[in-house]
Specification:
Distance between the termini: 20 Å
Number of helices: 11
Radius of gyration: 18 Å
Number of strands: 7
Strand order of the largest sheet: 3-2-1-4-5-7-6
Largest sheet: 7 strands, mixed
Helix content: 25-40%
Order of helices and strands: HHHHHHHEHEHEEHEHEE
């Protein structure tokens, strides 16, 4: 894999450094809302979601299981509330369609997917655009989201799309405890790593290793590439961070390239890198 670093992205995206991500409220308005309407914990959760809110997810079960469980409930409440309030296609973090970069990845699997049954996993699937596209390419695809309303919206979107080559299924099952070791040929991670609590990142890499078939593929569309800060989600990402998580688990980087502006969703130009990883053979 080419030794590609986030400095290339940052050097070519100076205009993005000063621009707040889409969906933000003016600082004065945020202060009024937080002070008048919200408790401290809820205010903190909502504040980080304004960066913009992507898809927050549960923490993994770990040695601090009680704390993780409490945080999961808080995060689920925050994101479920947003979806239940009537999030529409194209609103905030919902981009109304799959990334062109992911469609290119699926096209590279086309012959394999026609020749044999293959499975794909998309954690943090939202309305399910990527899951449906994977099914169009003959994958049996599973999308996970912490919000029950998001899962319902994804099912409705799937049902509106007509006949698909493979199955598109959705679940609120926790990614970190999904009981399907070695079940997936392809996993696509986009706006998921950047949404989870930073303390769960090692578990994120370990879980990918557990769920992907030996020799299978993990695709990480790394976003948002920006200088490190304390804001999030979405938390600032860089290529070396992701490399440092996956390589110790035995993943081999086969390619890592910046996403051309024309293939990024509006507002994300210059802040994305597509990396393709081969899972370890054991």
């Amino acid at each position: 894999c080419k030794a590609y670093t986030s400095k290339h992205i940052n050097d070519s995206a100076d205009s993005h450094r000063q621009r707040r991500l889409e969906g933000c409220m003016p600082a004065a308005h945020r202060l009024i809302v937080l002070t008048v309407l919200l408790s401290h914990q809820t205010a903190r959760a909502l504040l980080v979601s304004w960066g913009p809110p992507i898809k927050a997810h549960t923490r993994c079960a770990s040695s601090s299981a009680a704390t993780a469980t409490m945080s999961s409930k808080e995060e689920q409440s925050m994101w479920e509330g947003m979806w239940a309030a009537g999030l529409k296609p194209g609103d905030r973090f919902d981009k109304s369609k799959s990334s062109q970069s992911f469609l290119d990845v699926l096209a590279s699997w086309q012959d394999t997917a026609k020749a044999k049954k293959v499975r794909a996993l998309i954690p943090g699937c939202g309305r399910g655009y990527d899951v449906v596209e994977a099914a169009r390419f003959n994958f049996d695809a599973l999308g996970l989201d912490i919000s029950p309303t998001a899962v319902q919206a994804a099912q409705a979107y799937r049902d509106s799309q007509g006949e698909l080559g493979g199955r598109a299924e959705f679940s609120t099952t926790d990614f970190f405890t999904l009981p399907e070791p070695g079940a997936f040929d392809l996993v696509f991670d986009y706006t998921f790593l950047c949404a989870i609590d930073p303390s769960t990142r090692s578990a994120w890499a370990e879980t990918h290793k557990r769920l992907i078939k030996p020799g299978g593929e993990l695709v990480t569309l790394i976003y948002p590439i920006r200088p490190k800060d304390d804001n999030g989600p979405p938390y600032a990402m860089d290529t070396e961070l992701v490399r440092g998580l996956l390589e110790p688990q035995g993943f081999v980087c086969e390619s890592m390239v910046p996403v051309p502006h024309a293939k990024s969703h509006p507002g994300r130009e210059g802040m994305e890198v597509l990396a393709r990883w081969r899972a370890p053979m054991q």
